[in-house]
Structures are given as C-alpha cells and as structure tokens.
Amino acid sequence: MTSITSIAALILLVVGYYVVLLTYQLFISPLSRIPGPWITRISSVLEANALKDKRRAQWATDLFALYPGSVAVRTGPNSVSFNHPDAVKAIYGHGKGQEEFGKSSWYDAFSTTGESLFSTRSKKRHAMKRRMVAHSFSMQSLYHFEPYADTTIEIFLRKMDEFATTSQPFDIYFWFELFTMDLMGELAFGQSFGTLKAGQPARYSKLVELSQRFSNLSGMLPFGKYNVRVLSLVPLPYVQSLWRARLEYLEYARKALEKRFQDNRRQISSSGKPRQDIMQRFIEAQDPETGARMDFPELRAEASSLMVAGASTGSVTMNWMTYYLSKNPSVRSQIIQQLEEMFPDNLDASAPIPFSKLNKLNLLEATEIECLRMHPPIGYAMPRVTPSAGAVICDVYVPGGVDVGVPAATIGRNASVYNEPDTWKPDRWLDEKADLATMKICFLGFGYGSRQCIGRNVANQFVMKLMASLLLRYEIELEDPTLVLGTKEFTIQKPDRNYNVILRPRKSRGYPEKAIRS
Predict the structure, then answer these.
(1) Cβ neighbours of residue 29 closer than 8 Å, sequence gap 6 or more
(2) How far apart are CA 245 and CA 210, in angstroms?
(3) For residue 155, how far is the Cα from the chain centroid?
(4) Regarding the domain delimited by 34-517, which CATH topology (the fold level of the hierarchy) does it fall under?
C-alpha cells in the first residue's frame, strides 16, 4: 500500500510540475507578452511542421503579417524572431561582454566530424579559424582559383551551345547545379565531380540536401549538443532516411578528401608549387598566434561545409538572376550594353571574363544583390542566444538563454526599409538618394557581422563571371513568358517548380556560328 501511495505521489508531483511550467509559459513568462500563436508558448510543433512542409521561412514572414506593427513574434517556447534594422545590429553585431549574443545549440547539429567555421559556437575558436583561413578567400587568392572557374565555365558553355543550336527548351537551373557542384569539387576536393560532362548530378548533391534537412530538424530539439544523437534514434522512416543520408554524406566527404591527399603529390604546377585551391589553403593554414593547424576531421568538416555554402547557394542565385532578367528585358539590355562596352574585343564571347574587371559591372552586381534580397538562400533566422542577464531588443525585453534571430526572407521585404519590397528593382542599390546604409544592414543574403559568410568574395565572383559569360553569348528567354516562379524551402530556398528557358546565339554580335563551334 505504501509503494502505491509513493507512486501516486510521484505522479502527482510530475503532473504538478508540468502544470506549473505550462502556467508559467502561457501566462507569466516575459516571453508571454510577445505576440504569436498560443501554441508557440509551449511547443515548436508549428515551426517543425513548416520545416517539413518546406515553408519555414514563409511561415515566419506570415507570423509578422498576423501581428502588424510588431517588431517581434514568438516562434517557439524559447525562440523569438525580430523584423527591424536595430535587431540586426543588436543580435548579429559586434557585442562586448554581457552584450554578446552567442550562437545557439542549433549550430551543434551542423558539426559533423569536427567544428567548421560555420558550426563552431565558440567565439574564440571562430576567431582562430577565421584568422587561419581568411587569406583563402581574399581577392588575391581568387586569382589563383580563377583557372578552375574558367575551365568549368568553358565546359558549361559547351553544353549550353548544344541547346542553343537547336533552340531546345531546357531546365537551366539543373545545369547551374551541375556547374556549382563541379566547381566546388575542384576547389574543395581537388577535382571536378564530372557532372557537367555526364549531364547528371552526383549522388553527393542529393546527400548534401538530405543531410542538411536532418541537421535542421535536430537543431530544433531541446537537448543541446545531444540533439543529433537523440534524433538518430527516432524510429520514424522519414527521420531514419535523413540520418542514413547524413552518414553517407560524411563517408563520401571522407573518401573524396582522402583521395585529395593521395593525389596531392601529382597535383604540382609547373612552378613546382602545390595546386592552389581552397583546400590546399586550408591544409597549409596556420594560426599566426598559436601555430595551430587543422587536423583531418576538421578539414573534412570544412570541406563538407564548403559544398553546402558554395554549391547550393550559388546555383539558386543564378537561377533567380536568369528568371528576373528574362522577365525584365530592359535591365538585361542595360547589362549587356555595359558588358559590350567593357569587353569590346571579346567578339566571339568565348574568352574568359577576368575577375579583375567584374567589380566594374555595377548593374550586374546589383541584380545579384536584389535577387538575394528577395530570395536569400537561407531565409529563416540564424539563431543567437541572449546573454544570461537578458537583453532589450527594439524595446522588447527577452530573458537570458533565449534563441533570437532575424529571418533574412522577412526583413529583406520589410516595407519600412525597402520601397516596394515585393518588386524586383536592382537599381535601388544604385540610388544615391536611398538609405543605402539601412538597406545594407537589412540585407542578410550573406549574413551580417563577424560571422557573415567568409566565402562571399568567392561566391560573388563566380556567379558574376558565369552570368556575364551567359549574357554576352546568348539571348535567353523563358519558354513560358507568363511564368510566375515561387520558392520551396529545403534547407536552401529553391524554385517551387521546374521551368525551361530557350537559348539562342546573340546574332547582334555577328558571331553565332563561331560561338557555337568554340
């Protein structure tokens, strides 16, 4: 009888605990004053469902629409999203002491065989890693990488010539994905995956996507650094398929990197120096303060991270540039005129366009930035944790230990920052009368602050280089001129449907036959 009484007392104690907890979360917690669906006070089920339905970023944007005038909305029991320029500076800016917002446990899910520059939560380790690899992404390093970009672009253009000879409609986004996969293979693993020549994707590209979906799901669990392990034990078929993909993805990266080391002795240039790609720079990287170098697990983690950051984001950006330029022929004509004035000797449109001149193509770069504003590759909030003493963000008090962030897709269309935010207008970035400072603060296509994408230069240059080559060489049009393209969110925001374009040699240049034979 005593044991039964003890069990009943224990049950009552547990029930009482959760009743008190729910009461606090629903009505007493400082977070309860922040608007949001009531269920977000006690559960992350709405966000999890949005992630599963491939619309997580849009879900966050819709929440702000439900509560007009609010600078913050509740997205979960311990998470808040903001939509204001001051929130960007407060959360992602360079904080000091108690004002520092560290990375949340969400990033632990993206640590694979070791911490990468992206996944490490330690401010000290991040600073050390950044010191080690910063030169790998400098403009000077880009010139060493340029031959690999030129070779990959040449293969890509030959494939495009095949479509241009017949004016056959085809899915150009598919080929953008092959291009970026091959280029990042060259830069991260020392050799192309050969997807452009084969005309079909590598298994690796699908594994990258599935593995990232697993990381996103695990990052939403409340078990901190144990999230990955806990989720891997969940017996649901969907979860297990993602877990198997993650394991295969890591094994693929291991084998590719090992081959890179084995082939390294054969990859010696005529000058007697090793092949100069990003991975070689990582291998040689040494912290100037401590002398530390990356071990193999770290290099493997960085290579895996590079494939996600470079391949997935670059291809989707070029997709949106192609789509919007096809929809806006006047902008396209201005860019082509600028290209022809800058490269008058490139009569057959086959000579490589050098990195050294790309920074002068201001309208083409504005086109890229505008596409990233409207369709940032990662549209949801990159979470940071409020300091232990709590923080006041945009006059909203948030207790310590809460995940906060600014969704890039939401603030990128903030009407108080961008005039006609849902309209594609690249010249807004060239308007000297506009509040460019605030616009740039709210542009999160590459992140913000000390942890913004370190590979921004690399991504920007190869996107500009390929798009300039395409525009000089071909007339590009949509097969369906009435197409309205939306987004579907995997980890990266991608087009919500397949669509075709038609290429034709640019006869106004007077070289259609020569361009096709080149």
Answers:
(1) 41, 399
(2) 6
(3) 25
(4) Cytochrome p450 (1.10.630)
Selection from 39, 186, 86, 60 nearest residue 394 by Cα:
86
Q: C-alpha distances in angstroms, 27 versus 304, 386, 391? A: 44, 21, 20
Listed in sequence order, the DSSP H helices in 112-202 are 123-133, 139-166, 172-189, 195-198
| Rounded Cα gap, residues 369 and 365, in angstroms | 6
Is there a binding annotation on residue 453? yes
How many Å apart are CA 53 and CA 490, to the nearest integer?
Answer: 9
Domain residue ranges of the chain, discontinuous segments joined by +: 34-517
CB 419 within 8 A of CB 428: yes
Report in angstroms the alpha-carbon separations of 346 from 157, 229, 352, 397, 515: 15, 55, 9, 58, 11
pLDDT of residue 69: 92
The pLDDT confidence band at residue 420, using thresholds 50, 70 and 90, is very high
pTM score over 0.85? yes
Higher-pLDDT residue of 265, 70: 70
What digits encode the pLDDT tens for the residues 117-126? Answer: 788 888 888 7
Least confident of 23-27, 63-67, 239-243, 365-369: 23-27
Amino acid letter at 9?
A: A
**CA count, 13 A, side-chain hemisphere, 388:** 2
